[in-house]
Structure formats: C-alpha cells, structure tokens
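TL;DR need structure tokens for one chain.
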Amino acid sequence: MFFNKEFLGFFGSMTETKKQKRDILTTLVAEVADTGIETLPVTGLGVETHVDQIQQSPEPVKNIPAHDATPHFQSTTLQTVQSMNMLKHPLGEVFGFTTTDQSPKAQRYRSHRHCPFNNKVPNCTNDQSKNPLGVCSVLYNNKPVITCPVRFREDWMITDDAASFFFEEGVRWSSLTEVHLNDAGGTSAGNIDVMLVAYDERGKMIDFGALEVHAASITGNLREPFEYYMQDSSSNFLMDWSAQPNYPQPDFLSAARNSLVPQLLFKGRILHSWNKKMAVAINQSLFETLPSFSRVKKEEADIAWLIYDLELVNDGGKERYQLKKTDVVYTQFQPTLSALTAIAPGNVGDFVRFIPELAG
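>> reply
TL;DR here they are.
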C-alpha cells in the first residue's frame, strides 16, 4: 500500500491536533488537582418570576457548513484559557456562562437551553424558540458586548434602578413585562419592555413609568460559531474563529437607528405627552456610540439612561460575567430626540458626481 506525501501530512496534522487537546486537558486536570477542589453536587434552580411582585423602592445541534479555513486549537494553560483576552472567537456568554466554564451547572444549562436571566419561560428564546441562538454577549475588542435584551434582567437590577428614578423612596411598586401600547387611533406603538407601577397603602395605582431595554445588533454570522461550539463545548472553547468569513461583531449604528430612535419617536412621544418618565437600560459600549446629550439634574429629567457593563468576576473558582451599573445619565425628552435624529448633510456636488446622468 502506498501513501502520498499530502495524505501523510494530513494524518500528521490530525495527530498533532489530538496531542495538543490531550496536553490541554492534562494541564487542566493537574492544576485543578493542585487546588484541592472537590466536586460538589449541583441541584436544579428554578427561574424566579418577577412580574407583578410587590417591591419596596430603594428590587441536539446541526452540523455547520464547511469553510475555507478550519477552526483549530492551540495548547494553552488554564490561566491563559480563563482570560477572555486570549480567546479567538466571538462568543462571550452561551446560555449565561462563559465558554470556558465546564462546570456541571454550565453544562446543564447548555444541554437544556436554559436562560438564567429571568426570561419569560425557563428556556432561551433568542432568535427562535425551538433552536435558540443562546448567545447573551459577544466579545469585541476583548470586551463583552450584550446582544440579547434578556441579559439585562440579571437579578432584576434594572427595575430597582428604574424605580429609584420614577418614584420617591419607600413607595410600593410592582412590574409588568411586554405591556401593549396604542396611539389615539388604536394603532400599535409597540410593547413597553417593562412597566413599573406604584401603589398607595390601599393598593390603588398612583403612578407608573416605562423601562426600555436596548442591546447591540449583530452583523455577520453568529449562529455558525455558536453551533460549532455547541457540538463539543469542552473542546471547542479553544476554537480559533478569526479566519472565518462573516465574523460576527456588534452593529451599534443599526441598534440606534432601527430600534432606539423608533422607540423614542413612537412610545417615547406618547409617554412624554402623558408626563410619564422613561428609563433606558443600555450597554456602555452602545451608549458610547450615541451622540452627546445635554445632561440635566435628576429632578428635571424625562429620561434616565441606565448604563451597564459586564464585569468578569470569580465565582467559586469559575469566571463569569456580572451585570454592573457604571453610570446614570439624565436628559430631557425633546433635546434627546433632536440629538439622536440630527443629520449632518454632505456636499451635494459629491453626491451628483456618483450619478452619471446628472454629472453630465
């Protein structure tokens, strides 16, 4: 039997890849053994329902198509593997956990497609319910950027922060999600993401405010690296996706123009005409791409921009991202809308030069 050089080269590369993966796993096992960590049993945790709770104001995977460049693996120590800066793929969190987290709990959430961030149902429903795109955040410039609005619901911090803007301290309030809003003609203006309702001692509604949640849009193909990772998460967290076509990244401009501005135009105008306040929960990376706003004092504001980021923390020896409020910006409605919709027109001569019929 004869083998050509190309076949022998391919066989050798496959053998080397297996050796690299074996070396990585050996390193992981050795370092965990050195720490003396014991495996603890994991019990199932139910998702808590937040809707209508009275609060006290300060609350199997399909194969992907082949590519020209095949994702490959590199030998990496446990310390560098756990650093998000060393990863060469776009996945920040998958079903609520970092891609390097191989704990029993993380594996259970991936296996059952669970959402740990208070989705309307226990499972993730991002993109589609039967085969959800379970990516909560993507890595961009070595930082996580939230791409799923439900990700902001961690511990319901956003409702507590919104309530502190809407109501006086000590007021009783509850929350409702996806509240339908119509204009005067009965035409839908969309759904309010979260509505906070304040009550008096007898349970009568005395005030309400609207909380809108905005995550970054995505350009490129995010489903393919997600499905490749899900085929074998214990090995594929080391995948190098950087050479793949349509590498996904956040699209901040589309998020502002296609989501944020229309919601302020329609839902925002209605709420403003009712003299009701509005809060916007937004990722810091997305907020930094918006135009500069004229800031006002809290008591003069119509809108509170609740700005959050994901902070990498150590939780029981595992790294995870934790939602953290980084700033609050108070603005008035009309100046904010004007700033978001302002356009600086280009030179008409430059435009005409691209139209042969007009350029003559």
